[in-house]
């Protein structure tokens, strides 16, 4: 579904490349965990595969078509859902209306969007009373769960998440990973999770570690 060829990136203030000619491929139906230390370039990598920025060299392909040809705005609107670390919820709307708005913008095929959104929020511990509250009246952990559900509800086949369990307790973290796994295995989506938590990464199908400007696949320990 997603292919990266000879990708490199550097910040304007630095001459040293952040990556070393990255070649990667991500398949539909799998949950990927991206590990890396602080400053290794994990979040920048997410911004590139999510179409928020362009590689300096190399290219990214979605279903064998270059993002340059698709267009970044079109790519973000139609093909990818993003869970931001900073939530990026619309502050003047309720949790429920944030999700319904996303479903409308992306032309979701779900017929009863409000009922669907309420059901999905309930799966992560946001009941209907909380769902109808302005998001600014929710805790950080609750806002994070709303942001995750918003990405899950859209029809995009690629879901990318930046530290999605960072403000969640162990129980909710497990539930989020279960839902991400369900999205990949049952709905055939490609789900890519950026995390610094090994427990989260090791719950994924494929683990990639970003270290010394390149990615290496990490083998899971046998059960």
UniProtKB/TrEMBL annotation:
Any one GO MF annotation of this record: ATP binding
CDD domains given in the database record: ABC_MJ0796_LolCDE_FtsE
PROSITE patterns: ABC_TRANSPORTER_1 (PS00211), ABC_TRANSPORTER_2 (PS50893)
Keywords: ATP-binding, Nucleotide-binding, Transport
SUPFAM superfamilies reported for this sequence: P-loop containing nucleoside triphosphate hydrolases (SSF52540)
TM annotation in the entry: none
Domain of life the protein comes from: Bacteria
Coiled-coil region(s): none
One cellular-component annotation, GO: plasma membrane
Chain ranges of the ABC transporter domain: 2-223
Homology family: Belongs to the ABC transporter superfamily.
The protein's name in its UniProt record: ABC transporter
Organism: Kurthia sibirica
Organism classification: Bacteria, Bacillati, Bacillota, Bacilli, Bacillales
